[in-house]
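By convention, the token line describes the chain's fold. To illustrate:
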Amino acid sequence: MSNDFSQWLEEEVGLTQAGESIERIDIYTNTMEGVRQQISTIVQQALN
């Protein structure tokens, strides 16, 4: 795991799949807005 947010989601919130999905987002081939949108979508889906 290389980022604090996905680690927090997995370990503290119990959203393992969401954390793993966020971990796979390629920040080098996306814009910041694209990354933000992907994170938002993943978290929203995990909470529904």
User: Anything to note?
Assistant: The chain has a mean pLDDT of 93. DSSP finds three helices and no strands in the chain. Residues 4-47 form one domain. The chain has one domain: 4-47.
